Amino acid sequence: WSESAGNLNYQFNVDTINRPGFWISSGAQNGTMTTLNTPYRQFAGIVEVTKAVGSHMVLTFCMPGQQLFSIVMSRTKSLPTHELRGVNSLLERKGLTRVATREACRGAAALPSSSAAVLIFIAILSFVNRS
Q1: Which residue in 6, 45, 104, 127 could disulfide with 33, CB within 3.0 to 4.6 Å?
Q2: Where are the domains of the chain?
């Protein structure tokens, strides 16, 4: 994860046979955002691949205490409005309410990259308390 505030490196165990679409965090994150003067809470939990299509993917981070947040990662500089509406509808069907939206790396897909340019376009934060 990279943004103007710094970067984070996540590590996951991915079991594609028994639990496809679920990534389990493995160890603490490192990167410049863990050393800032602001408090940083380490992510420990499961990431669900909520949606994966050619142009974008949606990941939902599930933390203990039923605190959830989802991110949309796009291969292009921006996503069409109908795609973003589709993501919002998907999250609503899953019972995830949009609390805040924040963009990170906007326009970075236009930069050269040695990998398949999967870049974070928009972060949709969702918090759910289920009884």
Answers
A1: 6
A2: 2-127
| Cβ count within 10 A of residue 104 | 16
CA distance 54 to 43: 27
12 closest CA partner among 39, 38, 44:
44
Give the angle subtended at the CA of 125 by the CAs of 123 and 129, to the nearest 5°.
Answer: 160
DSSP state letter for 30 = B
In the block, residue with structure tokens 């376009």 = 121
Residues 6+ apart with CB under 8 A from 29: 8, 9, 10, 11, 42, 43
CA nearest 26: which of 46, 41, 55?
46
Local structure of 65: helix, strand or coil:
coil
| Amino acid, res. 76 | T
Global pTM reads 0.71
